[in-house]
Design brief:
single chain, five-stranded mixed sheet, 3 helices, alpha/beta, Rossmann fold
Length: 165
């Protein structure tokens, strides 16, 4: 009998597509390129007692990826202690995510790249995180489900690091 798989379930307790893809996203995210602007950057203070003002925009994802990734990153950041909201009148951070899906290779795998670009409330570049993974042809053409959760899980720590710079 398979264990009920969730983010907190040990990898060796689960088998199948979700764990395989989570492992890919985490591995890829662990070797990301961090780009930081040369000039000093001023950031707004982050109060852990209230949601961080942030506008999240996701483009380019096939299927329901734009919506699924937006919901997943909101949920994952809240889970790690940084709830975000696009409400309020304060200046907001901008998290712009662009997903690119490449051509299917001879092995039936399709390359996917997600660039997570963070700008501070003054509009200055805070940093960029890039995820790259290969998935079976057409896997992301419909509902993303766990793929969105896995990508957000892998991205959240990098986004937190960028916010704290």
């Amino acid at each position: 009998m398979l264990a009920n798989c969730s983010i907190s379930t040990p990898v060796n307790a689960c088998r199948g597509k979700r764990v395989k893809n989570l492992s890919k996203w985490v591995l890829v995210f662990s070797v990301l390129v961090l780009t930081v602007a040369q000039a000093p950057i001023t950031t707004a203070a982050i109060d852990p007692n209230e949601p961080t003002p942030m506008i999240v925009t996701i483009t380019g994802a096939p299927g329901d990826g734009n919506t699924a990734l937006a919901a997943a990153i909101h949920g994952e950041l809240a889970r790690v202690g940084l709830p975000i909201s696009d409400q309020g009148r304060r200046l907001k951070y901008r998290l712009d995510v662009h997903v690119t899906v490449g051509q299917v290779g001879d092995d039936g795998q399709q390359p996917v790249e997600a660039k997570w670009r963070l700008r501070n409330p003054e509009g200055k570049k805070q940093g960029t995180r890039t995820q790259r993974v290969e998935v079976p042809d057409g896997e992301l053409n419909g509902p993303w489900g766990y793929d969105a959760s896995d990508a957000a899980y892998a991205a959240a720590q990098g986004i937190l690091r960028l916010l704290r710079q």
